[in-house]
Write a structure and sequence with these properties.
10 helices, alpha/beta, single chain, elongated, five-stranded parallel beta sheet, 28% strand, 18 strands, 401 residues
Amino acid sequence: MTVLFVFCLFLLFILVVGASYWQYDAFTVLIITLLIVLVTSLIEIFYLKKKIHFDRLTANREIMRGEKGVFSIDVSLLSRWLPASIRFTARYGKSDKSVDEESLYLAHDLRPAEIAEFIFSVTGRHCGHLMLDDLTAEVKGMLGIFKYKTKLLDLQENLEILVLPKVQDTQKESVLAFRHIVDNEKQRRRVHERSDEIDTMRNYRVGDELRSIHWPISSRMGILVTKEYESPVSIRTHLLLDDFTGYSLSTTREAAEAALQLRDTMLDAIASEIDKLLLSDMALELHLGIQQTARERQNIARESLHYRRLLASIEADSLPTLVGSIGAHRQFNADDRCMLFATRLSEASAAAIVQLAREIAEVIFYYFEPAEITREEDFALWMIKQSPVTLIRMTPDRKGS
């Protein structure tokens, strides 16, 4: 029901009263004319309902945090002579406690046989999923007396944009930690495969390959001499994180916003470390409790973008504590390295981290410090400082980036 339709009903009432009171023929003519207009408008809106076609709503699959996500829909008017007016209302932010629910409006007059694209741009403020909560189209005819509405998200399921964390090269703490990793990578081991650097030579043993024999020296010494080579130790880096930031417990918009900003900082740091490790051809595993096939793990291990998708897909405050994560992955080899990320720290988690450092080659712990540190957290930090754990204290900007 439109305002114009209400006005027509009011006008019709006045004309009917006037015709019955004054009994002028002009009133009767006006009543008939108005009724014809109303019926024509009603036929018009039913005609347009059959002639307007809405294509499937689409969206770009993923964006970087801070970029605009684009939802688009094409509308076709199949009428040959009758125009139409269309207005879209899109709502979003219902599932985000850090903002009030917001609406976007788009309006356009469609010409006969026209195909128009409607684009809704929404900024990806935080890592995670960006989606529209509701999309409604309102169609009016040329007379504009009647209209009809249709919801376009009823048949659209899971249409969302993945907001990825940023890969940052300016984090001072990250650079220091990465240099620490590179320095430790200088450990070497002997292998029997050919490389560019000879480590030592020894007498030939049964089972040695003929290609490993150093023939010039063997001919001079009169005995067979075998070459041994050296190459970097293959250390696998395991990344474990406790993603708790307090978002699930926040009751105010300000608290929810601060929690999501802290989460963004953590995911950016992890994504940056992963990118540096992969660029240096270092093996790594990201432990999120996700069941994956061997082929999926192999594909992920080769590309930083896959890891960022995994990080962005984590629901806020959904992962276990570091104590639980470390306990679930006690099968680390002695040559392995662990990089731990957390915003909360307790004596139990500190003890688990210290014990882990005694069992494997190296542990690097990123601690995203809260605004105020409790006595238990302070003691837990002291425990870590007294151990061989490399402690990186992160101080995220709570005003956001």
